[in-house]
Design goal:
Elements lengths: L5 H50 L2 E2 L2 E2 L7 E2 L2 E7 L4 E3 L17 E6 L2 E12 L2 E10 L1 H53 L14 H50 L4 H33 L7 E4 H18 L3 E6 L4 E4 L1 H17 L6 E9 L2 E8 L31 H11 L3 E7 L3 E9 L18
Parallel strand pairs: 10-12
Antiparallel strand pairs: 1-2, 3-4, 4-5, 4-8, 6-7, 7-8, 9-11, 12-13, 13-15, 14-15
């Protein structure tokens, strides 16, 4: 049974159930019909015999049979004397049965005309004893039942077959969406084409809902695989450049005619590229742990005001080297529970990004305020801005809107900012006008109980 398909198992179960149900129903109908019919015949027989007993008259001990009806409601009637000799009717058509007279006893007797139901009554009339016997044939009823049984034996298998075929067709139609799902899954598995989707049609039943759910799952899988493929391609591309630089510098230092100063320069270049690769790998490992859900946020009270001030102080030299003014407007005493290292990276990434894509003689403003239960941190610059069609892409890993100005960046900074804000229960948004500048706004929640807690002292730098 377990080797059969679900359609076959449902059909077999449905057919067996219908077979037993119809068989039980027919048996009950036959039994009740036969019982009612026999009871009706018995009533007819008893009534006919009782009526005849009251109609019997004797004159001078002789039976007056002229007014008697010896056939009533299919019952043949016979009158006997006390010794069991037939008095009437004189013409016996072969219906009379050879059986002892038994007072008020119903019994079935095999006669010349077949099976007969017999009923006898002993009575006295004008002090003359006599017997009245009634006989009714069971053959006609039994023939009717036999014909009905034969008819049902012919119809019953056809009915069961019709139920089985109908049940199988209904089951096959009901399971057709599942078959399509399996076929689609097989095509996707064999062809590795995640663009295939399950046809759900306009149905709104449970299987259509399952199909929509699986289509959503396939869409997410397709996005995930495409992102992974793009991610692998981007990593390979980003690592190819520093590896090529390292290899060329090594060849120049080892096999060229470079002097001591050129070798030192080559080593410095190799060291710089190695640091870049190390930073990239570190960020990728962190993001990978976040994607797998294995990263654990180490929260503790953090003085965000002091942290932001420290980050600004650290990057003022880099901003001044590019002719950029870095200012800050920081509200004192803003604290929250969070990961100090990650929050430092968030602020540094935003400031570094603003410096890298700014103009000469431009400016950067970092503002940190608290409004109700929200902490607002914004970094506004007067840089080149971001085109509207690129504003949704800047959060993707390795995406850089202007590769000529990205410098040593790998395109991971803003994706890190978005993730750090998210793991702290916040969000980050962008307002930008191409050619005029950008403003990144980070919103973080203030957790209950952190407002009065002691954080890092003002001016303490993040590690």
């Amino acid at each position: 049974m377990k080797r059969l398909s679900i359609k076959a198992r449902v059909t077999v179960w449905y057919t067996v159930f219908m077979l037993l149900l119809v068989a039980a129903a027919l048996a009950a109908v036959f039994f009740m019909s036969e019982s009612l019919s026999r009871r009706k015949l018995q009533t007819q027989l008893i009534d006919a015999v009782s009526d005849t007993v009251t109609d019997v008259r004797f004159r001078h001990e002789s039976l007056n049979a002229e007014e008697l009806d010896f056939y009533k409601n299919a019952v043949s009637l016979f009158i006997y004397d006390a010794d069991g000799y037939l008095l009437a009717p004189k013409l016996n058509m072969g219906i009379q049965v050879d059986s002892l007279l038994q007072d008020q006893t119903l019994r079935t007797v095999q006669g010349a005309g077949g099976r007969q139901l017999v009923y006898d009554v002993y009575a006295l009339q004008d002090e003359v004893p006599f017997w009245v016997r009634g006989v009714i044939s069971l053959e006609e009823a039994e023939q009717t039942y036999g014909s009905l049984r034969f008819l049902m034996l012919v119809i019953f298998p056809f009915f069961v077959l019709l139920a089985a075929v109908g049940g199988y067709r209904i089951t096959r139609s009901a399971f057709r969406p599942i078959s399509r799902m399996a076929e689609t899954a097989e095509r996707i598995t064999s062809g590795e084409d995640l663009q295939e989707r399950i046809e759900t049609g306009k149905d709104r039943d449970e299987l259509a809902r399952l199909g929509h759910t699986m289509n959503g799952m396939l869409s997410r899988l397709q996005d995930s695989f495409e992102n992974e493929r793009q991610f692998t391609s981007d990593v390979s591309h980003e690592l190819r450049t520093p590896l090529a630089v390292i290899r060329s510098q090594c060849e120049y230092a080892l096999f060229g005619q470079a002097g001591e100063e050129e070798r030192q320069e080559a080593l410095r270049s190799i060291y710089k590229q190695a640091n870049r690769m190390s930073s990239m790998v570190s960020q990728l490992l962190l993001l990978s742990r976040a994607d797998r859900g294995t990263f654990r946020l180490e929260k503790r009270p953090v003085d965000l005001s002091a942290l932001a001030e420290g980050c600004c102080q650290d990057l003022i030299p880099a901003a001044e080297a590019g002719g950029i003014t870095l200012r800050s407007e920081i509200q004192e005493g803003i604290r929250l529970s969070g990961d100090e290292t990650l929050l430092t990276r968030l602020i540094n990434n935003l400031l570094t990004n603003a410096i890298r894509y700014n103009r000469k003689d431009g400016s950067i403003l970092l503002r940190l305020t608290k409004e109700g239960d929200r902490i607002l941190l914004s970094v506004r610059d007067t840089g080149i801005g971001i085109r509207r069609e690129e504003q949704d892409k800047i959060w993707n890993r390795f995406y850089r809107s202007d590769t000529s100005r990205s410098g040593e960046g790998a395109g991971l900074g803003l994706s890190m900012v978005q993730w750090i804000a998210k793991v702290h229960g916040g969000s980050v948004s962008l307002e930008s006008e191409y050619g005029k500048g950008s403003c990144f706004l980070v919103e973080l929640p203030v957790e209950t109980g952190t407002e009065g807690e002691r954080g890092a002292p003002k001016g303490e730098r993040a590690g």
